[in-house]
Design a protein that fits this description.
The protein has 71 residues and is an all-alpha fold. It has one domain. It is 86% helix and 0% strand. It contains 2 helices and no strands. The protein is elongated. It starts with a helix and ends with a helix.
């Protein structure tokens, strides 16, 4: 089974790159449609990704504890 911490780090790295691209896109795309996209989609994506990363951290901690208890 792949290490959950590795998956968490990968998700975080990919999301940080995506976030940077989103921020950079504001230079070329700054209109009503962008604001609607941000309100309707981007904020949800950002919040859900952060919540997922937090829960992955909790789950990784629980799995590591369980592994220690089994040994």
């Amino acid at each position: 089974m792949p290490d959950l911490n590795v998956s968490q780090e990968q998700l975080n790295e990919v999301f940080q790159r995506l976030r940077q691209r989103w921020l950079n896109s504001g230079d070329a795309w700054n209109d009503k449609v962008r604001r609607e996209f941000e309100n309707n989609y981007w904020r949800t994506i950002e919040a859900e990704t952060q919540a997922t990363l937090k829960e992955m951290g909790k789950l990784a901690h629980i799995i590591n504890q369980a592994r220690r208890n089994v040994r």
